[in-house]
Amino acid sequence: MALSSRHQDIVALVAAAGELTVEALSDRLGVSRETVRRDLARLESTGHLRRYHGGARALAAPGAEPDEERPFAQRMVQNAAGKKRIALAARELFGPEDSLFIDTGSTTIAFAEALATRPALVAITNAPRIAATLAATHTHKVFLLGGAYGADAGESLGPLALEQIGKFRTRHAVLTIGAIDAHAVMDFDLQEAEVAKAMIERADRVTVLADHSKFERGAVFEVAPLARIDRLVTDVPPSEAMRRALNEAGVELIVADAE
């Protein structure tokens, strides 16, 4: 691959994803990490992207700080293509008559849109938008949890929601997260973390949907140790260190195919 062509590919990949690690770019392009680092240095010097330690960000979409999370409306449009790929890959993991908890998040909303065309399922969610999406086909049985309304993400939270989760038992919990490192999955909001933890306690298997921006970040509230997660579906391969941590914890890693 000619250098100029590879540079164009790097800029396009970073622009589409918002940010990508050196490891992910190396895997996608089939070149060494050192080559990617040299390319990123040159592209930053020419004003095409912004480097950070271990990767690069698009100029128009700077990443959030490790201890911050963007407003939900911004998260809905951030890496929409990657989240759609995650949703389509995750859809294939569930069959007729499966029962699922689904929590609130931009990626689980994409998942609900993909899942709507699948055979009949039972879904319990704290997100009115997810409930409406799944109920629109008239094939799924949908339960919407009530509680205090969180206006930013449009979700039910608090003690009433937690009490209602305790009335169900499902085969699966499908969750989004705010961050993931080598030890745990985490969230930035206490009430959202409590909902996710309650769903995990009442489900046999746990599937986490997380795009690449969540990897090797930290957040204040732990949702679950890695060992409690059965499957992780993402859009870009994580770093080798993260892969090792997932493997040691027994987490099945599923990387969605590029479109």
TrEMBL record:
Cite the entry's keywords alphabetically: DNA-binding, Transcription, Transcription regulation
* Name of this chain's protein: DeoR family glycerol-3-phosphate regulon repressor
Q: Does the keyword Repressor apply?
A: no
Which species does this protein come from? Answer: Ancylobacter polymorphus
One short Pfam name that applies is: DeoRC
Name the PROSITE patterns on file.
Answer: HTH_DEOR_1 (PS00894), HTH_DEOR_2 (PS51000)
Q: Which positions fall inside the HTH deoR-type domain?
A: 3-58
Keyword DNA-binding annotated = yes
